[in-house]
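Hi R.,

Here's the chain you asked about this morning:
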Amino acid sequence: MANTNSRAVKTLMVVLSTALVLVSVVQLIDPIIGQFGAGETPTWARLLGLCLSLGAFGTVGALAIRSRKGVGFPLIPPAILMLGAIVAQVTISTIAQGLNAGNFRRVEAETVLESGELARPSDTETLRLAFLGDSGDGTESIHQIGEYLATYNAEHGLDGVILLGDNIYNIPDDGWEERYEKTITSPFSKLFEAQIPFYALLGNHDFDNKKVLEKMLHDPRLNMNGERYYKVDMPGAGGLALFLLDAELAGVDTFQTYWLDEQLAKSEELWKIVLIHKPAKSEHGGNPFVRSLFDQVDLAEAGVQLLMSGDDHNYQRHELEPGVVQIVNGGASDRKHIERKTSYKSIASYDERESFVIGEFTAQKAHFRAINHRGEVVDEFDLVPEP
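And here is the predicted structure, written out as tokens:
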């Protein structure tokens, strides 16, 4: 009975160790084989993780071979193997998540925002942008929003439209081209005809079909140019920079974190806006991996005034931290009531109908309006840049 129990414990430890090693290897090679983008990861860290993984994997193989030959083993070797696999797993997880605190700055920032009854920006040197999240259902509402934006463009002029991810849902294996036409081309056809630039980022549902993902990444109208995260510089209004990120890489890809920290440090634009599909915080709960990303890159210190996300199918406005407003803006085509799963409360929220956001920027202030698909303003506020 004792031998049977010992054998069972040994087998369980080998299975668990093997699983840990496989997870470690996947975490190690995933950012490389995925070609997630440019960045600089320390070579010694990659080599250390690889050596730990290969060493633990070799031990598993040796143990399996000797066990087949009938050579008895005490519990000490598999226990050592288990410890080695755990060390490999923790090491590589730490590397993959970019938890290198020495490379990041964390300081308190003073509040630089002002809200209230401020006048709307004048028409002189004004940048106008529309922000739409989770627009991929192809519903009547998103077509109505597209018509509203076409009219707004004819009257005032749009400088760009930002799609905040989940740009297409319910993608069939056959006929995906028709679905792409219905959800991306058709609602915004007049804006495309007017050559208004679009800037898209990816949401989790955009990965549901590889053909659609590749189409989106290389669609010249969406300006992604094959990149899953990128920066857009806009002249006027004192200079405006958009940093478009991939939420699926948050917490697991070091490259994106280093890239964002470096780009924010170099940016001299007056307005800095970070965009990512999943929110750091929301009344629905927010995403812990996105929160981890912004624990490492201090947005307030970098001069970012606004973080905008989608994913929750409604509108919410929060103060993410002193000096940074967060907008959850994911109700463009599939509005859902806010499911309050936390005690975290928004400054303003709207979940009655589909909605989107228009931002108007000058060198003195930026005015934002959340608008439903009927053209009714449901929230508005102003940001004033740091002097």
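One quick note: Residues 2-33 form the longest helix (32 residues).

Cheers,
M.
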